[in-house]
Amino acid sequence: MREGRVIRAISGFFDVFDEGCVRRCRARGVFKVKGTTVLVGDFVRYEPVGSQEGIIREVLPRRTMLIRPPIANVDHVVVACSFVTPDLNFYMLDKTLLQASVAGVEPTVAFTKADLASPDRVSATVETYQRLGYEAVAVAAKRGEGVAVVRARLVGRVTVLAGPSGAGKSTLANALAPGISFKTGEVSEKIGRGRQTTRHVELVRLDDTTWIADAPGFSQLQIPVPSREVRLHFPEFRALAEDCAYRDCLHLDEDHCAVKQAVAEGRVPASRYASYKQLYEEAREQELSAY
Ligand SMILES: Nc1nc2c(ncn2[C@@H]2O[C@H](COP(=O)(O)OP(=O)(O)OP(=O)(O)O)[C@@H](O)[C@H]2O)c(=O)[nH]1
Ligand SMILES: [Mg+2]
Ligand SMILES: [Zn+2]
Question: Hey, what domains does the chain have and what are their CATH numbers?
């Protein structure tokens, strides 16, 4: 039995990287009986078959796991959020940041297509997220702007790109990793959302310890945490919550809520609080429909 890392999953086959070689494997045996799934990023035990194939027998324990995009063992997610086509969507961004926080994966927010927005809007948006405590950067991938900042954050880690279709994930991935060419959408494609260019999650090795995965865009995402815990994944709420009158304040209908006070005074962006309320409601609905 040998061990390797799954770098691609296509219609029942898994490409497993092991010491510089890639083997096309199927998953069979004991492990399928247990109903385990294999994700890109998984470390697996496999039996070699011939020189280029193999059979996966076991998935090793995962360090981290994301649902969208589906990938295991990443340390870092670059959340791509474009200013236009698709339009900036803070709710989707905050939802993706919630998913990363719950999964224990460090995020970098890449505000993409910065060349298509006014400089004032770009700096205000980036600064808002920096003030919240996130690593945030404006990216104009085609001009190379912001690319070096993101690249510096890849070193020694396994990174995946996440965000809606058309946000510029593959374009950014190509700029980050010269010599690698992920398929990107056509420039002329201005028909709006819905067209997915990238179809599969694919991990590419930049050096021994640095990997990057391009992934399909997504618009649907479950809330991966109970409603009462959503607030714990808004880092800017944490310090404020100590001054709420109720120890378990949900920052919703409670009186003397320091978070709501901060929103009213503009110290917490209204859009962040709107995201929080919507995510809380969605988590509640998920809980109620589970019964
Ligand atoms: N002006 C401008 N256009 C960009 C930039 N980044 C990407 N685009 C364009 O946006 C479109 C979509 O880019 P992709 O990189 O394919 O987007 P994606 O996020 O990989 O999309 P999916 O694979 O469908 O999830 C293409 O037409 C790109 O040329 C940018 O920084 N500036
Ligand atoms: Mg793509
Ligand atoms: Zn409160």
Answer: 2-59 (2.40.50.140), 65-214 (3.40.50.300), 227-289 (1.10.40.50)
